[in-house]
Amino acid sequence: MLSWNRTLEISLILFIATLARNSCAAEQELFIQQWGLASADRVDDYDSESGHLLTRHQASAVLWDVKTGLALRQYPFNTRNFSARFLQNGRVLLKSSEMVRLLNKQNGEVIRDIDLTRYKYSNYSNILLINNGQPVFVASCGPETIRVWNLETGETLNEFPTEGEISAAKLSPDQQFLLAGSGNIGILWNLKTGKVQQRFCSPIRIRTVEFNDDGSRFLTIGSGEFWYTPRVIVWETATVFPLLSIPRTALDADFVNDEILLNYPQGKVELWPLDRHEKAPPKEKWPTYQSSTDNRWWVTRNHWRLHVDSTQKTISLHGPLPDSPTIEIPTQTSLFAAAYHLPLAFSPSGRWLLTGKSGWGNPGQPSAIWDLKLGELKYHLKNIDYGSFHPTEDKVLLRDNELRIMDLTSGEVLQSLQREKGDSYFEGAFTSAQFSKAGKHVLISVGDWYDGNGGGILIWNLQTGKIERDYARSSKAVIYAGWNSDESKIVAALTPGNDGSAGIDEIRVIDARTGGSLQTRMFPDSGIGVGGVNPSGNLITATSYKLIRNKLPANGSTMQYTTSLLAIDDLEQHRADLPGQHLFWNRNGSIAGYIPSRGKLSFFDLEENETLYSRATSLSKWPGVLFHPGQLLIAGSPGPPRQSVETVSDSVGFEQTLTGDLEAELFLFYGSDDWLIKTKSGFVNGSPGGLRRATSRVPGTLQVSYGADFTDSITRPQAVGKALTQSLADDLNLKAELRKLPQHDIPNLAPTSKAKPQKYDDPTKRLKEISEQLKAAGAKIKQAQFSGITYVHLEGHPVTDDLIKQLRWAGNIDRLYLAETGITDQQLDEIGILKDVKRMSLWGNPITDAGLSELTAMWSLEVLDIHDTRITAAGLNQLRMLPDLKTLIIPANINVNELAPLKTQRPDLELLLR
């Protein structure tokens, strides 16, 4: 037996240990690892000094530690189409076409936002680091301006005129020039004067530009039909002359000393010498790489390569060079992201919840049945997009490719219904199914909603296991069928099913005994949707939309949705019309919840026909929102966050009905049977793999770690179950509780109209004006329906600067004849950016080698006639990089022996002296 002093000593030690544990716990916050590197949308940047990696996951950037494989922080943004990168001094930058955001990497706080929509239409380009390392952003604003900001101060540093949107930009190492891509046109600005130094033409759209270390050369990378078009081109900065065209399908490229580093689609890298010239293979021999979700290579902006092998479940990070070391990233928590799933059905008492997919999405979509009372996942399923619990709660009806009834105790499939050839309902899918009130029958609708092969309604007798009724056959697909209150009538929603939209154009009420039609209502426009019958069995919801024309023509139209409550006994009778697309009902059907706009949830009283209360919500407005039968919780999918610092996740969320607090989230994970439940109070429950995602973080820092002690201390299935089954007390009334709540102003999170002027006026009108201008100058032209002007013959007619400039917008000109027009060297700058010209004559004009240098990037040029000009052999040698050049007609005084560089590069070129 222990002595009293010894017992006191042990008790004191335990007390101190408890205080220390509680103190440590107070310094930690729960941080769920809900993202996965194998599920990333893109990989943006890697900092080798800190070992931090930036990836994009839908509308968020996620920061990773490659040493531990743990996510450290999430940075939500305003769109899924953005890029991210690290900056100096602990900064992270996110950029989209509408906004630039500068963040504190450590705590995620927003330092500065630049709203690009204030500057007309914008497109984002590269970030430039100048002025002692301060970050500078360049974007095209409107069709004719490029603007430069200092991101730390928000100050506008400069503006330049341009002729199109900027798709890429880079500052020269000496900070004298700004190089930018605008479509397939490259532009070199002098930063001191703000004037264009040079322009050049790329064979395809420029998406990346890079200078070498001393700025004497730069390269451009294009995108598009890479299987026959060289993507990487090296240029001389002083003359903008193409030095090298690399016939490889590179994803990315950069200078490494006197070589070009090429990143290929399947992870290989190569150093290409500047003196290595190869002829591009024929179009049909260019490789076409097929990407695989199981074996993916990502390249960061600084040329690190992330390799994800989902089959082997390995992730590795490879350095930029061929002999760079490889970093193996632990995959304990970082492989697969949380899966998108929706609440599909609650059991009558609220103990069971079925979640699954929305009917769309990839095969293998995780689904599940949750035991909310125990706070755990009961069964892990796949591809369930509809279901219904039996009134006795011992069985559940599931639908994927077939209908099956599963025992909730054993998981055994008790009955199944499959379509077999010869069945009248063989064509089409099961589109809806539900138990009768007694639970002895299942009402089923079928139909081929996509191809329009008809449909019908079935009654499945569960006692015999056979189809008892096969009636109400229709030439249309039946998308939904539901019973009225006494199950004497069936209300069905039908679609023509011939346009792939599954839009409803008819609601029909039939006699459940005979199958005869009792009434029908037609809708003028296919495209409406229907919800289910309400719990009272007397209403069905129909959602329609109309296009609202915006005041600004450039903003087009928006859709305004209205959901009508139609009486089953009289389909022409409107009980109410509510804004939004989806209604969900409380237990007795006296209150309908609806989301009229993003971020707003309203409650409608069906007895008084009025909206009781509105509040903010984190749930998405799309279908998949349900009242828990206890009425104190609402289940849905958390949508984009109300505030930019909040978390958005692929989970099923439980909101408290009265307050809107997110009480709990249910996570499923791709590629595994792992699951996790997290509550607002910080308690969790999950599978072993799911619990490994419950990591701790020191608030305001990047100190994230996984520890079994921390996870064990917050794993409380009982607390989780209690949070998931909250119910309104028996002596309380939901309507009365909602009326007590004070009304608050709810921010409008709906998209707002933006002033987006036309880029270059109306193209049809502009083409007509150019055609008239060319004809007035004496030109003969030809036009194609989709290509604009394709042929221009101006020989012998003088041309003006303005007329030459208009050729860029005339269409896809492939025949251009400008002999004896008086065109000058300076005017050839506008000709050299025409990318489709194949045959061109310039003879009889006062042009020199300086003007010919403007044509060195006319990549489609096949035949060029420049006799009777002041062109020399030195000027002709500048054309040696044109890949399709077949014939040159040149002055007779040219010494062909001086054309060795041209003939070496283009040995098949035909030279005609005239």
TrEMBL record:
Keyword Repeat (UniProt): yes
Domain of life: Bacteria
Region (Disordered): 743-762
Signal peptide range: 1-25
Keywords assigned by UniProt, alphabetized: Repeat, Signal, WD repeat
SUPFAM superfamilies according to UniProt: RNI-like, WD40 repeat-like, YVTN repeat-like/Quinoprotein amine dehydrogenase
Protein name (Swiss-Prot/TrEMBL): Leucine Rich repeats (2 copies)
Species: Gimesia chilikensis
